[in-house]
Amino acid sequence: MSSSSASTMLTTPIKVGRMELLHRIVLAPLTRSRSKLNTLTQTPIHAEYYRQRASKGGLLISEATFISPETVGFQRSPGIFTAEQVESWKQVTQAVHEKGGYIYCQLWHIGRVAHPSFAAHALVKAQAVPTPPGVSASDVPTGLPAVTYDGQTVDGAVPRALETKEIPRLIDDYRHAARCAIEAGFDGVELHGAHGYLIDQFLNDGVNKRTDQYGGSLENRARLLLEVIDALIAELGADRVACRLSPHNNDTYSYNGVKDSNPDAIYGYAIKELSKRKLAYLLLTEPRWDPKFKGDAVTDPGHQLPSVNADKFRSLYEGVLIGAGGYTPLSGLQALELGKYDLIGFGRWFISNPDIVTRIQYRQPLNIYRRETFYIWKSPEPEGIDEGYTDYPTFDQVLRQIGYSEEEVKDLSSRVLSDEEAEQIVARSHDKGLKYPLITQVRLGNSTSAGSRL
Ligand code: FNR
Prior knowledge:
The chain has helices at residues 3-10, 44-53, 83-98, 122-125, 167-183, 198-203, 218-221, 223-236, 263-276, 309-313, 329-337, 348-352, 356-361, 395-401, 406-412, 419-430, 441-444, and strands at residues 14-16, 19-21, 25-27, 59-66, 102-108, 135-136, 145-147, 153-155, 160-161, 188-192, 241-245, 281-285, 321-324, 343-346, 366-367, 438-439. With 454 residues, it is α/β, with parallel strands linked by helices. The chain has a single domain (3-394), classed as Alpha-Beta Barrel (TIM Barrel). The structure holds ligand FNR. Residues 28-31, 63-64, 106, 192, 194-195, 244, 285, 289, 324-327, 346-349, 374 line the site of ligand FNR.
């Protein structure tokens, strides 16, 4: 793969819903647990984080964002259902738009993953008619540990099965959140239908034991997903609605304990139905991002696993398809070139490289991420805690830190680097004790190693 052909695909514009995107790199949704504890609002540091990652014609997807008090089950994830939350998001969307970028809001209901002790959260208690967290398709627990409202790790609780008559209210909660997202300045919404959260709990027959019209057949288990999508379309238009799914199989990681007797059938059905809806995009998770891969970022086994979902499901979906999960810059570019996906979402490497788009375009070395600061939910209030959030430097800042002259910085940060040049920069950085060490893109995986197993 030549760098020039890769760059051509990378910067080929594409229309996605109402957006005119100018390149093919997307910020995957990333929970970072830095919102205000009681109000679940955003702060100026959130605006700065998203501003850093925004680019002209680039799409950012927000961290997963609670749609209602019933889903509040992680500390310090933001919400998009109160007026105060809407106001707090405006600084974020404005910062992204000022740079010519776009931002979608990921709408999140975590269902049974929320421990019922979150009924003590201020926003749950404030409701006139309480809808306490800890609900699901059926009363099947995750079988995994859960974190309580006061931060204790305990066995996951048995969730309360949502009653059939509650489903219209649940769908209204999604509608309300979508309206709030648009009011907050988002360009559209992405329904989080992935990773074992509420929508996925309805899809998977290991969790969904219902006997009403939301359980049993493929059609019934996909009904909630599609009714929510249709409600969002009615609210915003299909060209401002997107969805994320995470097809898995018995050999891959089971997200939050969800299991299905025939995952290809249920996800295939759901994807075919979504295809008819002409959404802005569908984001598929490649099942090679596994929280249990806690080793060194550079040797993450996920990079070496083959991608599977593009091959399985691309032919079932006619619209714009985004892939995310275990991509390195070079394997991502190769997936674009091969037409496996239209866009590639980066998570962890985008956390540590706010300017990842130009880094990929110019084959610049990457800052290595630190897992310890992915989430900061501990007291004190994390306002102003920028470590691991907004303190990852851009490439030109790194060059200055390691002693390049202004003239060299200008040259090295504005053109495609040879592999040798990239290696020299990394070698030079080694003596300087950088807080975030560098790695070349080739060392992370290229067309002859990880990339060949896309
Ligand atoms: C995630 N992921 C994720 N996915 C999602 O749909 N909503 C979310 O809020 C989050 N939150 C989140 C937080 C953190 C710290 C990580 C590492 C991951 C999954 C994410 O979008 C992406 O699919 C994975 O990170 C895999 O992609 P990478 O990191 O291999 O590029």
